[in-house]
């Protein structure tokens, strides 16, 4: 399966001449499952559309979960979105029905308890619950995602940071800051390391054995330890992360702050007619007090690998003369230059952000925890891609990007970033941002 000389026969864009992943068998399996799921979703969506007396406008496909989203028009003429999740046996936590139902509770809680956020936080107009599914509706907000201005031909990094800064100010002032509890030693081990350990079976099931089996693999020239072993090391040696565990956990205003969940709305759609506004959508589904560094690490993760990777796909090759577990990894095509610039400026932006800095002042480990969390987010996302059987579209060719390619790309970047983060923690107790972010996909 992994011989570098194989020329795989498949029409999937994953496999080029020197490619590593022959995913045809796995894709058949996933596709069969996807078709059955999709029929059930269609039936339920049709039922919900009927109950609401709505007209279907189209599907929204920018999401990061297996949920289905339909744009509809309600009988009063207002554009709405129906979001449906049908339970997927074996879905990773965060993508399961329990988390989805909690998401609805979290939206209610945040809106009820923080009236000032109502103009900026997603509304929820209806909810529906079945035995193995749930759905909710919300108004449709005309928008572009907060990172769209970085993908423009002339990337607008200042505008991105103005917008992100304004959204973060609202979230801190009317959200995170509303409540806090002392964070405990072992938070990183519980939240990140344990989750990776629990999800690893899914990665081992679908990804090539040469990626998930050996004690060490080489990624972009760097020898990396097995990520599950690193997760267990963090759990077994709490002193490694004791200095960077969160001092405080804050009000759970979000939990999945990727750039596609921060919508920039045009003037008139928010609080004021003359200024653009925001809608923060799609919270994680948690009612527990939460680490703000976890959330902002999701923004870095969107800029570094996730958003560009989902839009472009990954090119994974094995050098012809190298050993079986040596991988070279990059985006297909070039990373968005605006994302690369913005990712390198991200920690500086947070350091200077007045409201964020007010919270992080008492939290000396926030930078290290953010960078370590970023590495874990990449690995967690690899499992989500396998759990997410929704079809995704390559923006250039309109052809599908295989979930396996997306999973493998996130996995290998995650292995690389986690190795570096843990090695630096072992050596100095800190992670130097400059050398660490030097691992980012770069334009070649
Ligand atoms: N209320 C809405 N108005 C406009 N666009 C929306 C709305 N809800 C979702 N979207 C679009 O659909 C995408 C996926 O929705 P989201 O709720 O984030 O799903 P997922 O859980 O799959 O990430 C969003 O990133 C956004 O582009
Ligand atoms: Mg989302």
Automatic annotation (TrEMBL):
SUPFAM superfamilies: Protein kinase-like (PK-like). It comes from the Bacteria. InterPro entries: Kinase-like_dom_sf. This is Aminoglycoside phosphotransferase domain-containing protein.
């Amino acid at each position: 399966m992994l011989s570098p000389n194989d020329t795989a026969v498949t029409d999937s864009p994953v496999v080029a001449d020197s490619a590593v992943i022959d995913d045809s068998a796995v894709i058949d399996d996933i596709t069969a499952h996807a078709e059955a799921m999709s029929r059930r979703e269609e039936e339920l969506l049709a039922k919900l559309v009927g109950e609401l007396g709505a007209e279907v406008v189209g599907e929204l496909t920018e999401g990061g979960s297996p949920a289905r989203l339909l744009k509809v028009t309600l009988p009063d003429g207002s554009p709405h979105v129906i979001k449906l999740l049908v339970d997927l046996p074996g879905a990773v936590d965060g993508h399961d029905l329990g988390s989805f139902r909690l998401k609805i509770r979290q939206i209610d809680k945040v809106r009820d308890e923080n009236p000032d956020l109502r103009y900026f936080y997603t509304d929820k107009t209806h909810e529906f619950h079945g035995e193995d599914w749930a759905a909710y509706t919300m108004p449709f907000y005309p928008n572009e995602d907060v990172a769209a201005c970085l993908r423009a031909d002339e990337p607008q990094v200042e505008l991105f940071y103005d917008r992100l800064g304004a959204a973060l100010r609202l979230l801190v002032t009317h959200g995170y800051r509303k409540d806090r509890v002392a964070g405990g030693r072992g938070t990183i081990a519980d939240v990140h390391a344990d989750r990776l350990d629990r999800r690893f079976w899914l990665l081992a099931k679908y990804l090539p054995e040469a990626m998930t089996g050996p004690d060490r693999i080489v990624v972009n020239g760097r020898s990396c330890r097995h990520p599950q072993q690193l997760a267990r090391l963090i759990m077994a040696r709490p002193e490694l992360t004791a200095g960077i565990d969160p001092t405080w956990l804050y009000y759970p205003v979000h939990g999945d702050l990727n750039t596609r969940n921060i919508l920039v709305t045009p003037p008139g759609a928010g609080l004021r007619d003359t200024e653009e506004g925001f809608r923060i959508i799609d919270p994680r589904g948690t009612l527990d007090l939460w680490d703000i560094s976890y959330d902002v690490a999701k923004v870095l993760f969107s800029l570094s690998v996730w958003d560009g990777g989902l839009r472009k796909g990954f090119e994974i090759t094995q050098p012809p003369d190298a050993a079986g577990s040596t991988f070279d990894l990059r985006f297909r095509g070039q990373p968005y230059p605006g994302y690369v610039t913005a990712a390198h400026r991200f920690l500086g932006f947070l350091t200077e952000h007045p409201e964020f800095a007010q919270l992080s002042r008492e939290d000396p480990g926030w930078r290290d925890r953010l960078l370590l969390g970023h590495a874990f987010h990449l690995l967690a996302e690899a499992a989500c891609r396998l759990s997410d059987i929704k079809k995704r579209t390559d923006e250039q060719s309109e052809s599908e990007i295989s979930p396996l390619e997306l999973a493998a790309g996130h996995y290998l970047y995650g292995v690389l970033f986690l190795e570096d983060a843990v090695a630096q923690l072992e050596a100095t107790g800190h992670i130097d941002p400059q050398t660490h972010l030097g691992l980012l996909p770069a334009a070649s």
